[in-house]
Amino acid sequence: MPLATTADLVARARAAGRGVAAFNVITLEHAEGIVAGAERAGADVILQISENAVRFHGGRLRPIAAGTIEVARSAAVDVSVHLDHVEDDDLLRECAAAGLSSVMYDASRLDYAANVAATRAAAEWGHANGLFVEAELGKVGGKDGAHAPGVRTDPGEAADFVAATGVDALAVAVGSSHAMVERTAALDLDLIGALAAALPVPLVLHGSSGVPDDALAAAVKAGMTKINIGTILNVAFTGAVRGVLRDDAGLVDPRKYLRPARAEIAAVAERLAGVVSGMPR
Q1: Residue 93 gets which letter from DSSP?
Q2: What string of H, E and C letters represents the secondary structure of 134-154?
Q3: Is there a contact between 185 and 175 (Cβ–Cβ < 8 Å)?
Q4: Counting runs of H as helices and runs of E as strands, what totals does the chain give?
Q5: pTM of the predicted structure, to 2 decimals
Q6: Active site residues
Q7: Residue 182, pLDDT above cutoff 80
Q8: What is the DSSP string of 214-238?
Q9: Angle, to 10 degrees, between the axis of helix 112-128 and the axis of helix 155-165?
Q10: Where are the domains of the chain?
Q11: What is the homologous superfamily of the domain 6-277 according to CATH?
Q12: How far from each other are the two terminal CA atoms of the chain, in whole angstroms?
């Protein structure tokens, strides 16, 4: 299928009251497994490459982007490719030329005024270059920061932020946390509803790996649209590799452990793409 754009996938999901899963890609096996799972679920998905993943690939975006785009183009469902958690302005400016349709520009570590200024400049550049631009307000952070007083996104401040920056989507802090390996996060559904009512742009949930399936479905119903998922894929991938190598300590052919690892990613992606899109299998 032709490469989809993130703007179209997010708009379509939001209009239908559904979510769209955005899965993190680190290796080509991630992209292949995610797409295989999405096809089985019959759900459109977003493949996203983070600045950390680019750093893992020697700081070069183009090779992993090109491979991911080709996997997306070969899919039987609509798939877009997105650049995630970008703090480096030089990397931001590689996004459009590399063939990606969207970027999440992350200035959330800065204070509010500096976040607004940096994000507005990124959004202006992104829009001039045909990109859908996501930003973040609040502190999703790691496990310790997501539940502390004052870190969650305030609806009034979020509305002002969107108006001041012109972003197309906003990642908000509502109780999830990055890098969780246990699915114990409790989301503030009332806050999600208040944010959805206050903002004219789609909401994005980061740190979704730590959120149980039923809570993800409830978050979408409350107003979330783009659901970012990463760590849970790596838990499945690594568990499969560890199991194969434990059973055969002499194994040296990486295909023998990457194949089951890719299959585990596909299984997780199938389930979560279905949950998020409202079409669980």
Answers
A1: T
A2: EEEECCCCCCCCCCCCCCCCC
A3: yes
A4: 11, 8
A5: 0.92
A6: 84
A7: no
A8: HHHHHHHHHTEEEEEE-HHHHHHHH
A9: 40
A10: 6-277
A11: Aldolase class I (3.20.20.70)
A12: 23
